[in-house]
């Protein structure tokens, strides 16, 4: 039973519960109109202490399409946190008004803290470089639609693997399925955190390799997950400038890839995927955007007990 549950990281859901949400999302994709109104009378709060376009708007669109209403903020400077109010008190207040809260915060662990004080389900919409579970639902829905399942794939994560919360969440999720292999492509300074290597891959005997050049490995991949180098995660702008153009996917590199490889990206894109790739049928990152709304519709309906 998912009603009343918090979603802080993908591991909060069993594989059966993941399937329950994704199956509902599949049904919504086929016939979205039959789900309009299932959350009538319910209220979603979107608390975004950090900038967002797709995640915030897809949450709002999801709730509105389910027949509910939305309140919240997209600028922490317009809230009482500027007066020194604690996150705990903000959550105590907002959860008194609403049925479910989607929160993004730049501090790792903020969503977990919020869940300890909330009267309603907390959905982690991103906490620093830690987790982004609803992006993972989006990614899984996209992978299943194009690949038919989650087993037996070679997955390449490319770009900023150190700060990329979408990478961490998806890698954890896909590591739970059989016969997957991972190729980690990044400069050494942006390599995946050690805890991911030890606690996710090595602890579970999951094959992985590390490579600094995308061209060397793109031909082996079934799924290529590109990420931007995130300027907002750097303390030193010179480091960002030095690394921001480390990986750019273009038609020349794509010639080395399998014909059925898919390209995913959590967006926003800066320059790591050339626009010339957008028309390639393997480029699914804008399809991901649409699937994100359906995944969040399914999640909201389940956590609020509407379905």
UniProtKB/TrEMBL annotation:
Single annotated GO MF: aspartate carbamoyltransferase activity
SUPFAM superfamilies per the UniProt record, alphabetical: Aspartate/ornithine carbamoyltransferase (SSF53671)
GO biological process, one term: 'de novo' UMP biosynthetic process
UniProt domain Aspartate/ornithine carbamoyltransferase carbamoyl-P binding: residue ranges: 5-144
Catalytic reactions of this protein: carbamoyl phosphate + L-aspartate = N-carbamoyl-L-aspartate + phosphate + H(+)
Residues binding carbamoyl phosphate, per UniProt: 54-55, 104, 132, 135, 267-268
Keywords, in A-Z order: Pyrimidine biosynthesis, Transferase
One Pfam family hit: OTCace
Transmembrane segments: none
Pathway per the UniProt entry: Pyrimidine metabolism; UMP biosynthesis via de novo pathway; (S)-dihydroorotate from bicarbonate: step 2/3
Chain positions recorded as L-aspartate binding sites: 83, 165, 228
InterPro entries for the chain: Asp/Orn_carbamoyltranf_P-bd, Asp/Orn_carbamoylTrfase, Asp/Orn_carbamoylTrfase_sf, Asp_carbamoyltransf, Asp_carbamoyltransf_Asp/Orn-bd
EC numbers: 2.1.3.2
Aspartate/ornithine carbamoyltransferase Asp/Orn-binding domain: residues covered: 152-301
NCBIfam families, sorted: asp_carb_tr, PRK00856.1
Family: Belongs to the aspartate/ornithine carbamoyltransferase superfamily. ATCase family.
SUBUNIT field: Heterododecamer (2C3:3R2) of six catalytic PyrB chains organized as two trimers (C3), and six regulatory PyrI chains organized as three dimers (R2).
Reported function: Catalyzes the condensation of carbamoyl phosphate and aspartate to form carbamoyl aspartate and inorganic phosphate, the committed step in the de novo pyrimidine nucleotide biosynthesis pathway.
Protein name per Swiss-Prot or TrEMBL: Aspartate carbamoyltransferase
Name of the gene this protein is made from: pyrB
């Amino acid at each position: 039973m998912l009603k009343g549950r918090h979603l802080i990281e993908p591991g909060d859901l069993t594989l059966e519960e993941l399937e329950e949400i994704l199956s509902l999302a599949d049904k919504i994709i086929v016939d979205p109109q039959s789900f309009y109104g299932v959350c009538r009378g319910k209220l979603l709060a979107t608390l975004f202490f950090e900038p967002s376009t797709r995640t915030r708007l897809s949450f709002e669109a999801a709730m509105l399409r389910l027949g509910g209403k939305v309140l919240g903020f997209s600028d922490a400077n317009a809230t009482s946190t500027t007066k020194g109010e604690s996150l705990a008190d903000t959550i105590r207040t907002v959860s008194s008004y609403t049925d479910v809260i989607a929160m993004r915060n730049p501090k790792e662990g903020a969503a977990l803290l919020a869940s300890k004080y909330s009267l309603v389900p907390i959905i982690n919409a991103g906490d620093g470089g830690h987790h982004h579970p609803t992006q993972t639902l989006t990614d899984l829905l996209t992978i299943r639609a194009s690949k038919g399942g989650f087993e037996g794939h070679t997955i390449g994560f490319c770009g900023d693997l150190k700060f990329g919360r979408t990478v961490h969440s998806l890698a954890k999720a896909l590591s739970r399925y059989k016969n997957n292999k991972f190729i980690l492509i990044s400069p050494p300074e942006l390599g995946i955190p050690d805890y991911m290597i030890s606690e996710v891959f090595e602890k579970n005997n999951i094959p992985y390799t590390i490579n600094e050049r995308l061209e060397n490995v793109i031909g082996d991949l079934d799924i290529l997950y590109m990420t931007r180098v995130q300027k907002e995660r750097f303390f030193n702008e010179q480091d960002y400038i030095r690394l921001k153009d480390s990986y750019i996917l273009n038609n020349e590199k794509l010639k080395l890839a399998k014909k059925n490889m898919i390209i995913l990206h959590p967006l926003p894109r800066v320059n790591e995927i050339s626009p010339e790739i957008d028309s390639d049928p393997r480029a699914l990152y804008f399809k991901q955007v649409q699937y994100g709304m359906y995944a969040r519709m399914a999640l909201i309906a389940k956590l609020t007990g509407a379905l």
